[in-house]
């Protein structure tokens, strides 16, 4: 696959995404500077909006980046059904750009949280999760101060009904409870997709779980799902 | 200009020093010049009380790429064209006054020192000291400092992988915030904070300059203070977002040969940064302050030269290369202005537009008077050291209750409530996370890894500044050896009280002597460091606190150890001692002695030869894949050591060696040079051979297994109970 990784000022998981996708998962990657007006996103098979603190999270996390010219291109790219993954700050940017519903507010305990989270794959009928057994609990780090997913009741009902909730925080055994919810997200939501199923937003960082040496490699399963789907379609 | 005592007090210059200035200039300085002298002759910038002592320390770094104190940070070459840059720096006084911004800008400052060397910052560590968290004001300071570090480090994308936190009344009004940063250079292109030649341009990049932090170096960091509120405006405000793009843009700019020098604007702002650059280059400097981009209106030259506005860097650029470099900063939307140029005369000439405001010899500014320190041992220290601990009453409480009390001490309890607020995974190199002994990072593209640790024990330093410092070096290195890495270099954070007092002078001289000795013994040169003096309130000094940051190298990250007990049935073995249990003298300056008996007494001890042999054996066992876990005995003694390995491994242990001496010393004695390992029983013989070859005492003391921890026939406690107490105590205290 040919994967574009968007870089805003303040983005920091761009290099981690590059390492995971290129060095570990052996795909072709390229950084895309947010001011690059010539870039044609359609030349990429998928776009990643990585984590970090674009524009220092000033105003509201993701809000300034969502107004960057590159996001106009991303909107067209996504509306045409191409795969887009927003990780952490990328998820926040996708919500701010109205590519995904809801918003991410301050963690309920008001503190930043960095730890390995357990997430359960709630829907493995997506291009991002199709290679993951639906019983599998993934261990993937979180690193955020504003990861508390919030939306009004109707939106949440819709998300539940349409199977758009892809990942939920659970305990090690896969039980969804308050103790395993690291930020206060409604219904322990850790990641969602749009109705068309081509845009994924998630707070945990799959690129940080890319290697057993650094504590685990479950994040690769998400990237591998996408790569497998891509290779199948290509055949 | 009429110089009054008030004016001199404001910049912390004594009458004697003022007279020295006049002697050097052969005239009275003007107001602007007095500001420059105040900054550069401050303790913070001028090292008036420590320079003579540190000169001896610097001899250890003679053969290294950068000599101690010559550049913004120290450098070691670890082979394969990889260089590692590291330094520790304090931000104690600002954090006492404005905990959040004080700590945040402390982190920002040390990061700039690292990328000023041309290195990409890859890790942060923090060594923190606070008053006990039972008091509301202390809680405010603790939570403020931790949030400040979290805010700055997380935003910038550098993992915060370790450090330590201690609580004691001695730090009540003088918290210590020492931040360490480590960077990597992969192409051997080490930057220098120098210009090449006269005609090179002095270029300021980054933030606009405001009125923040004026007199930070002289007023705040170089004298003791009483009225904290009045000083709040001397604390700077940090913007980690700007620092992040400053890192990226500077690292991009230095790829071009047009950039010949890079220097961070830290304490004393442009004054210190620019003059140090000129001094290192053996050149002079001409600055036009009207060219400095300003955040506020009508700032005068004094304010512009002394402002400590954050996130600014100075570059020395070849005369014809400016436009090319400016384009890079423009790409990142960062301001980049020529504010002066280097000249062939040993002077700094300051202009405002075309008006010349001052012309001052650089050699006068950079050579403050240096003071000799007393080595007289205080009489009270003898009394504390000679206390006979044998007379200590054995507690009437049960050993289990005492154990629970020690475990719930904030100094022993899990620090997770703090470190989970710091990103420790970003950059995806973290092999051993916070919560163990040393942290371990891999280096991408190499089999090698680096291990990092900070250590200091204020109580032991207080009881014996010389040995206490050697113990800090030994412990920092021991933490690193427990991962399998070999310690190779140190950075030191000296935190002391008022250096004008005899007792503090004794502590300083002895500590530095201890540091020189231990650094030689371990063959770990001190490559960078920082001194923070005047940590004193209402006449009371903090414990002398020499914080040691250590770095080690592991040749192959496939073979490392952490502190976790792994498998039921594994043998638990002590290295460096022939018994599991501590002896009475090991209670000197221990957590047990202070927590249970409310005393800080005794004579700390260490045998560096045994220490070095024990560490070597531990590394060897890890390299040969015999040792499965390694954890050194430190605060709280062997009881806490075993408990930590059990909790992190999620398994119990049975220690079956009989306790023959006092149980309190046995469990809680803080024996030095002692490492507890776990190995498969099949490998015990091989370990014995290695131990004998290296003449290191050892003792097999029990087994890994079960759901409780059993200390001989003295006490048994369930893993769950101990984990609850250990895991939840600090969080409860900080609420």
Question: Could you describe the largest sheet of chain B, including whether it forms a barrel?
Answer: 7 strands, mixed
Strand content of chain B: 15-25%
- Specify the helix fraction band of chain A: 10-25%
Highest CATH level, the class of chain A:
Alpha Beta
Account of the protein in words:
- Chain A has helices at about 15-25, 70-80, 90-95, 155-160, 220-235; strands at about 1-5, 30-35, 45-50, 85, 105, 115-120, 135-145, 150, 165-170, 190-195, 200.
- With about 240 residues, chain A is an alpha/beta fold.
- Chain A has one domain (about 1-235): Rossmann fold, CATH 3.40.50.880.
- In chain A, the strands form 2 sheets. In chain A, strands 2-1-3-4-11-10-9-6-7 form a 9-stranded mixed beta sheet, sandwiched between helices. Chain A has a two-stranded antiparallel sheet with strand order 5-8.
- In chain A, helix 1 (about 15-25) links the parallel strand 1 and strand 2.
- The longest helix of chain A is centred in the last third of the chain and has 16 residues, at about 220-235.
- Chain B is an alpha+beta fold.
- Chain B has a domain at about 1-40 and about 190-370: Phosphoribosyl-aminoimidazole Synthetase, Chain A, domain 2, CATH 3.90.650.
- Chain B is about 35% helix and about 20% strand.
- Chain B has 26 helices and 27 strands.
- In chain B, helix 19 (about 465-480) packs parallel to helix 22.
- The longest helix of chain B is centred in the N-terminal third of the chain and has 21 residues, at about 135-155.
């Amino acid at each position: 696959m040919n994967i574009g990784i968007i870089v805003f000022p303040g983005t920091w998981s761009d290099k981690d995404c590059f390492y995971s996708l290129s060095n570990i998962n052996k795909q072709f990657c390229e950084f895309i500077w947010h001011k690059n007006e010539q870039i044609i996103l359609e030349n990429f098979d998928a776009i990643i909006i990585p984590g970090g603190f674009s524009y220092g999270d000033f105003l509201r996390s993701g809000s300034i980046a969502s107004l960057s010219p590159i996001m106009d291109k991303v909107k067209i790219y996504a509306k045409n059904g191409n795969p887009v993954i927003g990780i952490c700050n990328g998820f926040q940017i996708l919500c701010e750009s109205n590519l995904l519903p809801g918003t991410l507010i301050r963690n309920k305990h008001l503190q930043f949280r960095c730890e390995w989270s357990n997430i359960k794959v709630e829907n493995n009928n997506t291009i991002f999760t199709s290679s993951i057994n639906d019983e599998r609990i993934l261990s993937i780090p979180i690193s955020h101060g504003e990861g508390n997913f919030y939306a009004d009741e109707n939106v949440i009902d819709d998300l539940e009904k349409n199977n758009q909730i892809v990942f939920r925080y659970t305990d090690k055994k896969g039980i969804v409870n308050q103790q395993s919810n690291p930020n206060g997200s409604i219904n322990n939501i850790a990641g969602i997709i749009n109705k068309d199923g081509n845009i994924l937003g998630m707070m945990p960082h799959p690129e940080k779980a890319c290697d057993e040496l650094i504590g685990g490699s479950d994040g690769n399963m998400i990237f591998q799902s996408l790569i497998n789907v891509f290779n199948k379609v290509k055949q | 200009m009429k110089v009054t005592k008030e004016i001199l007090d404001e910049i912390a210059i004594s009458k004697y020093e003022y007279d020295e200035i006049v002697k050097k200039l052969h005239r009275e300085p003007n107001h602007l010049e007095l500001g420059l002298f105040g900054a550069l002759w401050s303790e913070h910038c001028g090292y008036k009380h420590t320079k003579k002592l540190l000169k001896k320390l610097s001899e250890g770094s003679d053969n290294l790429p950068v000599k101690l104190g010559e550049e913004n940070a120290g450098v070691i070459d670890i082979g394969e064209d990889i260089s590692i840059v590291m330094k520790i720096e304090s931000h104690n006084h600002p954090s006492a006054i404005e905990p959040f911004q004080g700590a945040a800008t402390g982190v920002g400052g040390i990061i700039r020192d690292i990328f000023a060397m041309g290195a990409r910052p890859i890790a942060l560590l923090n060594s923190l000291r606070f008053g006990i968290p039972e008091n509301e004001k202390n809680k405010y300071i603790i939570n403020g400092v931790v949030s400040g570090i979290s805010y700055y480090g997380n935003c910038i994308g550098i993992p915060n992988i370790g450090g330590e936190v201690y609580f004691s009344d001695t730090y009540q009004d003088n918290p210590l915030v020492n931040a360490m940063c480590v960077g990597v250079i992969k192409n051997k292109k080490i930057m220098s904070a120098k210009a090449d030649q006269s005609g090179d341009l002095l270029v300021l990049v980054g933030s606009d300059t405001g009125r923040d932090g004026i007199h930070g170096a002289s007023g705040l960091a170089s004298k003791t203070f009483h009225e904290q509120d009045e000083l709040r405006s001397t604390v700077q405000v940090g913007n980690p977002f700007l620092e992040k793009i400053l890192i990226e843009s500077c690292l991009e700019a230095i790829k071009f040969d047009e950039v010949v020098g890079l220097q961070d604007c830290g304490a004393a702002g442009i004054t210190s940064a620019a003059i140090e650059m000129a001094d290192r280059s053996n050149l002079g400097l001409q600055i036009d302050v009207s060219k400095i981009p300003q955040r506020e209106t009508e700032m005068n030259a004094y304010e512009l030269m002394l402002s400590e506005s954050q996130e600014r860097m100075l570059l020395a650029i070849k005369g014809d290369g400016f436009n090319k470099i400016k384009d890079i900063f423009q790409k990142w939307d960062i301001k980049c202005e020529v504010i002066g140029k280097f000249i062939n005369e040993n002077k700094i000439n300051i202009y405002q537009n075309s008006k010349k405001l001052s012309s001052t010899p650089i050699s006068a500014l950079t050579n403050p008077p240096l003071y000799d320190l007393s080595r007289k041992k205080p009489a009270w220290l003898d009394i504390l050291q000679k206390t006979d601990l044998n007379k200590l009453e054995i507690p009437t409480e049960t050993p289990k209750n005492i154990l629970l009390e020690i475990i719930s001490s904030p100094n022993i309890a899990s620090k997770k409530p703090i470190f989970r607020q710091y990103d420790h995974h970003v950059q995806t190199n973290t092999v051993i996370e916070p919560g163990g002994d040393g942290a371990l990072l891999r280096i991408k593209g190499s089999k090698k890894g680096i291990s990092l640790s900070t250590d200091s024990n204020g109580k032991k330093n207080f009881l014996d500044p010389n040995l206490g410092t050697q113990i800090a070096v030994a412990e920092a290195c021991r933490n690193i050896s427990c991962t399998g890495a070999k310690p190779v270099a140190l950075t030191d954070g000296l935190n002391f009280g008022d250096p004008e007092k005899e007792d503090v002078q004794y502590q300083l001289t002895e500590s530095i002597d201890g540091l020189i000795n231990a650094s030689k013994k371990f063959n770990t040169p001190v490559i960078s460091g920082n001194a923070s003096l005047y940590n004193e309130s209402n006449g009371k000094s903090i414990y002398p606190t020499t914080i040691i940051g250590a770095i080690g190298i592991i040749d192959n990250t496939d073979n490392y150890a952490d502190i976790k007990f792994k498998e039921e049935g594994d043998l638990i073995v002590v290295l460096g001692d022939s018994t599991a249990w501590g002896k009475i003298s090991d209670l000197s300056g221990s957590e047990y002695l202070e927590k249970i008996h409310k005393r800080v007494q005794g004579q700390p001890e260490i045998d560096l030869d045994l220490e070095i042999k024990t560490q070597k054996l531990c590394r060897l066992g890890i390299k040969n894949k015999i040792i499965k876990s390694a954890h050194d005995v430190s605060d709280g003694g062997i009881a806490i050591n075993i408990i930590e390995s059990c909790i992190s491994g999620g398994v119990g242990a049975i220690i079956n060696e009989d306790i023959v001496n006092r149980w309190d010393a046995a469990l809680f004695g803080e024996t030095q040079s002692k490492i507890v390992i776990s190995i498969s029983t099949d490998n015990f013989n091989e370990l014995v051979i290695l131990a004998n070859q290296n003449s290191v005492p050892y003792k097999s003391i029990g087994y890994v297994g079960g759901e409780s921890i059993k200390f001989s026939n003295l006490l048994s406690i369930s893993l769950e109970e101990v984990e609850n107490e250990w895991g939840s105590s600090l969080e409860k205290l900080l609420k």
